[in-house]
Amino acid sequence: MNEVNLWRRLKVAVAHLPIHHKSSVKPSYVYRDLGQGDVEQGALLVEGRFQFDQKDYAISPQKGWHESWPAELQKVLFTFGWLRDLKALGTNEARLCARGLINAWCERPQQNDIAQDGVIMGQRLANWLAHYEFCLETAAEETQKRVLDVMLKEGRILAALLPLPPHGWEGLAALRGLLAAFMVLPEQQGFLLRFQRYLQPELERLILSDGTVTERSPEAQFQIVRELLSLVSMLNALHISTPPIVSQALEKTCSVLRALCHGDGKLALFNGSFERSASEIQTLLERAERYRVITPILPQGGFIRLTLGRSLLLVDAAVPPPYGFDYRAHAGTLSFEFSYGPQRLFVNCGSALGGVWKGALRVTAAHNALTAEGESSSEFGKDGHITRRPSHVSYAHKSTAKAHWVDLSHDGFHAPLGAVWSRSLYLGADGEDLRGQEVVEGERDLSFKIRFHIHPSVRVVQEDEDVILHAEGSIWRFRQNGGKLKVEDDLYLGQRRPEKTRQIVLLSEPGKTIDSQAKKLLRRQKIIWVLERVPD
Fold this sequence. Notes:
With 536 residues, this protein is an alpha+beta fold.
């Protein structure tokens, strides 16, 4: 391993050396970004501000790139993905702002570890080329030459860094950056050869056989589809046939992306996801897929998708993603989301890009799941990766034309508390009857809570021991047996901004002693709950 690292450092050092080449004025090929930008963020950028984690940071061509920003913010800024926000704004001021910020970088590139990270660098190269027509095509020749020289240098560094360790969907974005460097200067055949060499291995570790991304995240699923579609666009511009593995991956990932959307057309909120806009997702799918297919079963991805009538139930029924793909993973094992038509009822709380919210939204308490003695089912280290996770998650599903039954369990509480949590879900009555049974078995009674986070668009009224949910076009009644029921204030960040809402919390009661199959006395605590639609 040390020899590999030494060889990589040597290649990177060589890549930093100046080379003699004919300086280009314009890239040989360009392509256009397929993302949908945020006009409000674009307007802030023109004013010299960038909003991140509910805070404004000063950024402008005049100030340059030498601020001591938080690491999470640098990871966002240094990819230049926000160029699509300026493009969405589309004004001349936005064009000049984008050009000025790129030029400021090229005059004095950042040299810290984040700026020089392969996945950050790859995204930066791809985003510069994707927005070249918007902000650089009419720039002075001196500016264009400076940008292309930096792209060539960073392309050589990126090529030397390959293969990169697992990063999730950004690993594919890094390869796209290498292809962008080739589009700038096709004489550098090494860029294309290394792209072709590492494309298939990267796709194989990013995408499972059923089309689910290894990160097990609807947001990552969206990003992978966009990356694949961008690759197709770039290869078309180069007049290179799309490799079959890319076409096959695009077909599979699109059908899974559709499966991980609710009836409102927006993303489910598992493992670092947020809703996004339905139009953005639909536009991407219309560009990317030939057939409108929804994958009903995701055995490798570990999501259960059940539909009945107008109802949709999505369940996270697998262990969290493996190391290297778990940087944004949540402790939401066995959590679920439930919607009726376009109306979301039970939701996980969402995600944040950085700051205190990022950590707070990763814990089990931010999901429709059970916490025991305040513990989450998984824990996270300072580097963001999972340090403790369930080692075994099981599920069994059976159904008829009129109902679904799902039995689930995980041992995420066994290491700290010596307990196992089992959850049984039933969906029947044309999707208007959702029931659950929660069982905790261990050596002693535990204090546990089961949370049901309610979408902000739903009005919540408590009536004695029942909770009434007033949604658009429907009314639902929630009740339980075996625990104590409370309704508490809550926050929802499914759209990356805090919104006040409510949550139902069920608190444990003492259980009873049982004989286990291992001839060992255990304590079993059980709560049963029901959510039924009130007839019109």
